[in-house]
Amino acid sequence: MEKTKVILDVDTGSDDAIAIMMAVLHPDLDVLGITTVNGNKPLPNTTENTLRVIDLLGAGDKVPVYMGCADPMVAELTPDRHAESRQAPQKMEVGGEVVEYHSEYLDMLPPSTTKAQEKRAVPYLIDTLMASQGDITLIPVGPLTNIALAMRAEPRIKEKIKRIVIMGGGHNITNRTSAAEFNIWKDPEAAQIVLTSGCQVLLVPLDSTHAGDVTLAESRIIREMGTPVAVAVADLLDQRIKAYDMFQPQKIAGSTPPHDALVVASVIDPEVLRDVQFRRWMWISAEESATAERWWTAGYTRITLPIYRLRWTVTGSGL
Ligand SMILES: [Ca+2]
After folding, report:
1. Alpha-carbon Rg of the chain, whole angstroms?
2. Could you give the CA distance from residue 161 to residue 45 in angstroms, rounded to a whole number?
3. 260 Cα–ligand 1 center, Å
4. Pick from 150, 167, 240: nearest CA to 209
5. Annotation marks residue 61 as catalytic
6. Is the pLDDT of residue 78 over 80?
7. Burial state string for 259-296 with b = 16 or more CB within 10 A and e = fewer than 16
8. For residue 241, what are the CA distances in angstroms to 114, 207, 218, 224, 232?
9. Across residues 150-163, what is the average pLDDT?
10. Please, how many CA atoms are within 13 Å of residue 48, restricted to the half-sphere of its CB?
11. What is the pTM of this model?
12. Which residue(s) pair with 29 in the sheet?
């Protein structure tokens, strides 16, 4: 079978790390490159974390890593408009141990020896897509800044992208404000550009990733495989489960949504997603208003897509 050519766009991140491992190791995928972006952590951290994962996989000479954008396109230029997070703290010290969703660095992995490429992510995306046969799938699992900026700089790439599978948005579940998912909240203008690009887009929102919760028992099964990658995945899952139990308890105690890993899994096997629907228009968790109608609009990232049809996943069955 011909491999599916993909480029991952990541803000690594524990779930991004698992997504990268899955994509690079799976025989059905050909990971052409990985681009990094500012997101859960600043760009130097997300890039270093990505390189640590690449080192673990021994893929330093096979999968090049390109540093992308260090800031959202517009959002942080207008801080008054950018709604504050209403979420519980991301980090807490309990009995001398720090519990958080995403640590500064992936501490279970040693500092990287592989270096990021000289070329930056946006020119890499443009050059690679323009030279392609239109057979590359983009998998962005962080804020959409790199992809949107590439589309603005070279609009012809839109015709070259096979499809874009995004971890982002939330319908009934949010994780940043009372109405916004982090990746869309962090760079809503970029999301608007990508979602209205006319490209074939599949959104995998929080509603799906939370339906695919991974439990401590499943983490143990992965750990028992005993390979360095399996142990690293189990370490990452256990760290996430600890944070979710404390800050965002799931329906099943001792479990965590796999977020970005589910998106990669869905590119490998579309059957992991259920209830994939086409919508003529949608609202994604938008217009961030700190003034009028505060009750309803503060923190609400609303993007109206009047003519575009997107595939929108309602639930996911997990990994
Ligand atoms: Ca991510």
Report:
1. 18
2. 28
3. 6
4. 167
5. no
6. no
7. bbbbbbbbbbeeebbeebeeeeebbbbbebbeeeeeee
8. 29, 18, 11, 18, 14
9. 98
10. 13
11. 0.88
12. 4
